[in-house]
């Protein structure tokens, strides 16, 4: 339904409207690295994590391609999990550029078109470009792939235990907004 960039004065994760869930998509790119990280975390309108996942990506020739593959994977997962009303958030400016101007990236058009096709299967959706702080949990999960060399893909209920404090801060909107 919409692609937007948030300009909220609050630089912290925000809860979705009550009828929707929020899927934050994380990307971790290593220039010329063999493996890049991808993740998503799904939270309800109370900020509670419902599910999360991570995977290692290989074979991407650019950051934009890797980030678009991450978004495609998250969109496919939300469809497979049968969610109908989703607010997607990603902190990749490359994803925003590609979705707003697909004709500028003909080499990636099959990937972009697939994402748009799958999005239109949802009853209600938005994709927002947000700051890294608003996307810090998903970004941390994606970075764990490349920093911790955690290449095993999985889907799990709830959120990762090692990010429990961060998830609690996001849910209560009491996180420190200091960089």
UniProtKB/TrEMBL annotation:
Known Pfam families for this protein? RVT_3 (PF13456)
GO MF, one annotated term = nucleic acid binding
Annotated Gene3D superfamilies: Ribonuclease H-like superfamily/Ribonuclease H
Q: What domain of life is recorded for the organism?
A: Eukaryota
The RNase H type-1 domain sits at 37-144
What is this protein called in UniProt?
Answer: RNase H type-1 domain-containing protein
């Amino acid at each position: 339904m919409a692609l937007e960039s948030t300009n909220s004065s609050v630089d912290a994760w925000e809860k979705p409207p009550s009828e929707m869930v929020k899927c934050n998509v994380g990307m971790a790119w290593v220039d010329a690295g063999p493996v890049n990280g991808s993740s998503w975390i799904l939270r309800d309108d109370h900020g509670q994590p419902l599910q999360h996942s991570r995977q290692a990506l290989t074979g991407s020739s650019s950051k934009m391609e890797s980030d678009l593959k991450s978004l495609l994977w998250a969109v496919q997962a939300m469809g497979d999990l049968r969610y109908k009303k989703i607010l997607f958030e990603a902190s990749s400016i490359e994803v925003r550029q590609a979705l707003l101007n697909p004709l500028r990236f003909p080499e990636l058009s099959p990937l972009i078109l697939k994402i748009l096709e799958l999005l239109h299967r949802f009853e209600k959706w938005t994709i927002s470009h947000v700051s890294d702080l608003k996307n810090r949990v998903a970004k941390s999960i994606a970075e764990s792939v490349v920093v911790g060399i955690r290449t095993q893909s999985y889907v799990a209920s709830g959120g990762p235990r090692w990010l429990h404090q961060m998830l609690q801060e996001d849910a209560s909107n009491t996180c420190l907004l200091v960089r």
